[in-house]
Amino acid sequence: MLVIALVVGTVLCGALFVIAGGLQFFVLNGSELTNTFTYAGGYAATLPASTFPDPLRIAFGWIIPVAFIAYLPTLVPLDRPGPPMLPSWLAWLLPVAAAWTCLLAAWAWRFDTRHYQGGGG
């Protein structure tokens, strides 16, 4: 689990940076949005998912799966059950979470580069 978590966590973080980087094409002060997006996601990844209300648990566990970076992989060696909607057995689906996030990043980057119209004259 440690090796899988290190590789997948790196891929997930990289994909989050690609998504945030693509937003730079459309936002005026994009560095602040990127910091919010990536560092808030990183911070959320270090917290127990049981502390989040259900909407955030769904967002950080299923839509943009930052819970797969650190929280879920630590449940396996600790033999903990995990909170509702994020059971510990999901940690074994780390490669699926990484593939999903990479697909989101690829889609976002493609969308962003196709709709970019330039920064000025």
List the helices and strands and how they pair.
Blueprint: H1 2-23, H2 30-46, H3 54-63, H4 71-78, H5 94-115
What this model shows, in words?
The protein is mostly helical. It has one domain. The protein is 65% helix and 0% strand. The protein contains 5 helices and no strands. Helix 1 (2-23) runs antiparallel to helix 2 and helix 1 (2-23) runs parallel beside helix 5.
Mean of all residue-level pLDDT scores: 83
The proportion of residues in beta strands is: under 5%
How many β-strand runs? 0
How far apart the termini lie comes to 51 Å
Q: Categorize the overall geometry.
A: elongated
N-to-C series of helices and strands = HHHHH
Radius of gyration: 16 Å
Number of domains: 1
Q: How many helical stretches?
A: 5
> Which residues form runs of ≥5 with pLDDT under 50?
none
Sheet with most strands: none
Which percent range fits the helix content? 55-70%
Structural class: mainly alpha
Structural key phrases:
mainly alpha, 121 residues, 5 helices
Summarize the structure.
The chain is mostly helical.
